[in-house]
Amino acid sequence: MQKITRDQLIEKAASLLGNGTVSCVLGWEKGEFDYDVTPALFETESELREKFVFGDFCGANLSKYLVSKTRKCEGRILVFLKPCDTYSFNQLLTEHRFDREKAYVVGIPCEGMADIERVKELCGDGISSVTADGDELVVTTLYDDEPVRVKAESVLAERCVNCKSKKHVAYDELIGEDGEVLSSARFDEVARLEAMTPDERFAFWQNELSKCIRCNACRNVCPACTCERCVFDNPSSGVENKAAANSFEEKMFHIIRAFHVAGRCTDCGECSRVCPQNIPLHLLNRKFIKDIDDFYGEYQAGAEVGSRAPLVNYTFDDLEPGEVFERGGQDA
Amino acid sequence: MRKCSLESIDRVFAAINADASLYLPVDGDDGKAVYTKWEDGVKWSGALNTVRSPKSFFFPQMEDLVQFRTEGKTIEVIDPRKESEDFVVFGVRACDAKSFEVLDRVFLVDPVDSYYASRREHGVIVTVACTRPVETCFCKTFGIDPAEPAGDVSVWKTDSELFWQSNTEKGEKLLEKLADLTEECTDEAVAAQKEKINSVMSRLPLADLKADAFGAGKTMKFFDAPEWDELSESCIACGTCTYVCPTCQCYDIKDFNTGNGVIRFRCWDSCMYSEFTKMSAGQPRLTQKERFRQRFMHKLVYYPEKNGGLFSCVGCGRCLSRCPISMNIVKVMKTIGGKADE
Description:
The structure holds two protein chains of two kinds. Chain A is an alpha/beta fold. Helix content of chain A is about 35%, strand content about 10%. Chain A has three domains: about 130 residues, no CATH class; about 35 residues, no CATH class; about 140 residues, no CATH class. In chain A, strands 2-1-3-4-8 form a five-stranded mixed β-sheet, with helices on both faces. In chain A, helix 4 links the parallel strand 3 and strand 4. By secondary structure, chain B is α+β, with helices and mostly antiparallel strands. Chain B folds into two domains: about 180 residues, no CATH class; about 100 residues, no CATH class. In chain B, the strands form two sheets. An eight-stranded mixed β-sheet of chain B has the order 3-2-6-7-8-9-1-10. The radius of gyration of chain B is 22 Å and the shape is globular. Chain B starts with a strand and ends in a 5-residue tail after the last helix. The chains are: A alpha/beta, B alpha+beta. At the A-B interface, strand 2 and helix 9 of A face helix 8, strand 11, strand 12 and helix 11 of B.
């Protein structure tokens, strides 16, 4: 369960709207059910009171919306950012994707967000309501007479189980206490893949990526993918493809995308959250992050604004390609 | 009506598979059901439905249409189609079965799409009545009865038995093949089962959703509705809704240069994409709001207008559970359809 409440956020937003600090608010809007939350822009206090929601299903990272919304809105936009979202925010600023002055960041603490798929696994399908109660979620379904109670921590999204930081790296003001950078187990799964033989690893990715339907949700939600026009959408690029013609092309899209965001991916995990086919796309990005950490020293994209990512920087201490190979590159 | 025990299902599958490939929903490694070719040991999934709809059996995401090979001054034209073989799709739900009717009205009208037609001809659809509809289901909104699924054969599942009813000549033939494994029975158990399903349907959160406000002739009423701005505000312009949708039917045709010729292929396309239906003057719908509006207007107004009032949404709920931002046709219908007539 989240430590801050919807009402606290509405109060904050209403006062900032009221005193003219911001002209609109980027937040989450309630849906048909308790879990289908939609990112939304609010312009008035009454809109906020009617539709704004905050809770365990507000996983959507709002930072990328600033690219389009800061261009659209007059005045400043209040954006509520969870700790992990602030890394994306900084990375977007590093890449000059929007005007910092047009955003007013209210950092909000996060206790980890629930994954509705995990809720369904534990409680069964046909969810008619999900409400938080202490450290539990109370789930009613169409098929159980009694509500099912589950520990909130047992239905956390993978990215939240392996949360890398509870610390806000960007904000104009904070609600609640700031946390710390955590030592997470987020690379364990990557290590497991690295321990496979190349054939096993190939089979793993072949299986995962063959599920891809090329809906582009991973790309479109990704805060590191903000090209005005993606090379894969551009018929003049020569590599445009709307569907994978063969298993090579299936892999090409995701691997090229992973290369493209290498060093810029903050590991926000949105790609895996939105994948309709449940492909663990974040593992490709984490492999790059892990390698960059190993080869160039620890680096967290978005930890600060303006840092030069190791892959686009040069120092005399940089590894030579041969060394990369010797230090494990042959299996990488 | 014929029946067999649930325990004998694998023998039934084997019998169907003996002279036509059998496909059925099977749980994948991520726990999600996927249509999979049956073979010994493959278990029919208990899931309500698959993430990807069965439209791919007739309208695959990618297919080669024709191939040209050049050699010197000659061009060879190659038809890459192989004679389609008979196949059976088992476990189709009522919503998806209805989607084939929606697709037929696009692909089987003049000029008939021979690629699609050939697959339809060779495919036998075995539907299974729903037992556990979920909160995202709203097929009833479009007049679909999950207790009476269409298809060549309809099947009802109880705790211990399967009941089979043929609806077409193709279905009749399939049941003839299963004569030794099934026995004649009355339809009492099925009637009880239908009642059970209907009692669940009335408890669904979307049970009262109505499509009456939409349909033929409503273009001008909804086209300029101010709500489209807000509804499309946070759409990330991905194609998830269109690609998991059982009725979305748009495609692109492209030429792939093979070096010594061309493979002309078609693949699914999405009205949500900026490159969709690009013409010499560009994309006719310049903003995401226009693309977003197109998708829902097509389902709820344009398609019914051209097809005797038939909506091209079947209420399967896939877009409800898969959209990255949880924006979907139900929210659209409730937002703009709830408006009083102006």
